[in-house]
Amino acid sequence: MSKNVRTKEVDALFDAVLSLKDREECYLFFGDVCTINELLSLSQRFEVAKMLQDGKTYLEIAEKTGASTATISRVNRSLNYGNDGYAMVFDRLKDNE
Which listed site, 8, 9, 27, 43, has its alpha carbon 20 to 30 Å from 64? Predict the structure, then answer.
């Protein structure tokens, strides 16, 4: 992650997220912190990433999620050249199944 994003304010936000205990607390907190559209955009990107990991095509992803090809491309770039955050989360979710 870019160093200019690493601020005490972002640290405080992440600490707040790490303090959440369950899905219901996530709904409460993110419902206050994000607009509905921001939250839906984040969840859409996460779904796109899962589908890309599963080998789905851009067309399949766009049809199922409604994501633009630009969004799909950005998520794909993060999967291939990012910080491996998606991969880390996917591995942990798989371990919890």
Answer: 27
Calpha distance 70→43 (Å, rounded): 16
* Structure confidence by residue, pLDDT tens digits, 35-69: 999 999 999 999 999 999 999 999 999 999 999 99
pLDDT digit string (tens) for 60-93? 999 999 999 999 999 999 999 999 999 999 999 9
Within the chain, residue ranges assigned H as helices are 8-18, 23-33, 36-53, 58-65, 69-81, 85-95
Q: Are 21 and 12 in contact (CB under 8 A)?
A: no
- Could you give the CA distance from residue 85 to residue 13 in angstroms, rounded to a whole number? 17
